[in-house]
Amino acid sequence: MLASAGGAVTVQFVTAGGSLVVQALCARTVGPSGYGAYALFVSVLVMITAVQTSWVGDSLTVFDRFDPRVRGALLLSVLITVGAGATVGAGVTAAMGLAGVAGIGLFGLLVALWLLNETGRRIFTARMEFWRLALNDSSYLVVTIGTLAGALALGVDATVELMLAASCAGCLVSIVLARLRLPSPEYAPAPLRGTAFKEIAGFAVWRSVQAGLRPGSLLLARVMIAAFASTAALAGIEAARLLLAPALTFVNGAGGFLLGDFAKAERTGAPMPARRAVRVCVLLSVIALVMSLGGILLVDWLGPLVTGGSFTVDRVALVGWGVYAVCFACTLPLASLATARKMSREVFTVRGVESAVGLAVLVGLLVTDPGHASIAPYCLGAGGLVSAAMLWRTLRRTDPVPEAADETSPDLPVSADELVG
Fold first, then answer.
1. Which 3 state secondary structure label does DSSP give 311?
2. I need a labelling partner for 401 at 20 to 30 A (CA). Which of 60, 121, 165, 175 fits?
3. What is d(CA 290, CA 206) in angstroms, rounded to the nearest whole number?
4. How is residue 219 annotated by DSSP?
5. Cβ proximity of 210 and 342 under 8 Å
6. Maximum distance among all alpha carbons in the chain?
7. Burial class for 235, CB neighbours closer than 10 Å (0-12, 13-18, 19+)
8. What residues have CB less than 8 Å from 177, skipping those under 6 apart?
9. Which residues, including other chains, have CB under 8 Å from residue 149's CB and lie 6 or more apart?
10. What is the pTM of this model?
11. DSSP assignment of 225-282
12. Residue of 245, 235, 211, 249 lying closest to 338 (CA atoms)
């Protein structure tokens, strides 16, 4: 169990570590305004990925993906989401004026490749093969950074377009490697007619919208900061987020493991009671707090490494991202348990209210004074504590009866509870 959880966290650190290197290189070479624009590009990609992977990836985990009707629905979902994601990504970035025609085309291609790669990644996750996934993600990291470093060594200017092209190369290699390393049944075709698409959609629509709330809120907050303040102000806030990326990465990795573990318990007839998720909430929150404090205390040393001295880290936002990480850790295990119980609509309602209130407070502060941009992480994160309490109450009403949750039964599978002992 610890090995599986460690693999899940390692995957997140490999992925986030590569992103951190690329973003730090971007911040050091293109300046604060260019880095602010690149942060918006990444934000759009993250939002689209969150929606797609929640529809396809979480359905792979919660439903029986080898059932022909479910499999057909999943294949149809991949086709639809990849095409729609690339179109939306190109359209949004064009509307925001982030790049020229070449940049928009490269970003559309990157979205398509990224979503295909993400589908393969979620198959590894559904199989609970996190260490194998870490190796696959490492290939993306090596190829992306290698392409970028090679181009810069040849004298190519560091631009957003170069960053996008390097990521496309990394995604392509990772897609091919996943196809070679996963067993053939995972790629077996299925009829696209008479599928369980309606059943999958009933779960996935709410799950996808809910999963898109957090990255969508971050995107809207970034757009508002760039509009009311400046992309230079956004760069300082984003640099602060990068310094606390390890804490957020750890929580994300644990969340990927927990959903698979909770869903497995549901399928085997031994559902987890809500109190176990609360134990994990406490553990994750403490770890997130310690890791956040580390980033805050080391800001004088780490800050110049990220920015290259071209701009400064926003210290008010830095503490705010620590608050955001801890509140995120409080909410995620409860949201994962609710998702495993196919309560995606309830999770969306709770998280939707939290996001709407946070954004409303932020826009009010920015309209009053653009200098309040640094408070954005507090506005987006603090509501997580209220969401955690509301999810707790909802889960308690649907908890299994004591007999079904008897921890002394020898038939119970090992669960996430062992992580907190």
1. coil
2. 60
3. 33
4. H
5. no
6. 68
7. buried
8. 136, 139
9. none
10. 0.65
11. HHHHT-HHHHHHHHHHHHHTHHHHHHHHHHHHHHHHHHHHHHHTT-PPPHHHHHHHHH
12. 211
Q: Which of 72, 47, 48, 40 is nearest to 59 (CA)?
A: 72
More confident site: 8 or 106 = 106
* DSSP code, position 183: -
For 179-209, b/e burial (b = at least 16 CB within 10 A) is: eebbeeebeeebeeeebbbeebeebbebbbb
- Collapse the DSSP code of 4 into the 3-class scheme (helix H, G, I; strand E, B; otherwise coil) and give the result: helix
Nearest to 412 by CA among 275, 258, 268: 268
Q: How many CA atoms lie within 13 A of 27 on its CB side?
A: 31
Q: Which two tokens stand for residue 57?
A: 């990836």
CA distance 386 to 160: 38
Residue type, 169: A
User: What is the spatial distance between Cα 376 and Cα 123, in angstroms, rounded to a whole number?
Assistant: 35
Task: Report d(CA 296, CA 307) in Å as an integer.
Answer: 15
Q: Per-residue DSSP letters for 5-68? A: HHHHHHHHHHHHHHHHHHHHHHHHHHHHHHHHHHHHHHHHHHHHHHHHHHHHHHHHHHS-TTSH
Say which amino acid occupies 226: A
Kindly indicate the confidence band of residue 169, based on its pLDDT and cuts at 50, 70 and 90. Answer: very high
Tokens 């934000």 — which residue? Answer: 43
Which residue, among 125, 161, 165, has the nearest Cα to 15 in the 3D structure? 125
289 closest CA partner among 343, 251, 258, 316: 251
Average pLDDT of the segment spanning 402-407: 45
What is the DSSP code string of 63-84?
A: S-TTSHHHHHHHHHHHHHHHHH
For residue 192, the 8-state DSSP code is: S
Instruction: Give the tens place of pLDDT for each residue, 42-69.
Output: 888 888 888 888 788 878 877 878 888 8
Q: pLDDT tens digit string along 116-147?
A: 999 998 888 878 787 788 888 888 888 988 89
Classify residue 293 as exposed, middle or buried by CB count within 10 Å of its CB (0-12, 13-18, 19+).
Answer: middle
N-terminal to C-terminal alpha carbon distance within the chain: 12
Instruction: Decide: 159 and 30 in contact? Cβ < 8 Å.
Output: yes
Which one-letter DSSP state was computed for residue 99? S
Asked if 170 and 150 count as a contact pair (C-beta separation under 8 A), the reply is: no
Q: Which of 81, 183, 60, 68 is nearest to 126 (CA)?
A: 60
Which of 110-124 are b and which e, b meaning 16 or more Cβ less than 10 Å from the residue's Cβ? bbbbbbbbbbbbbbb
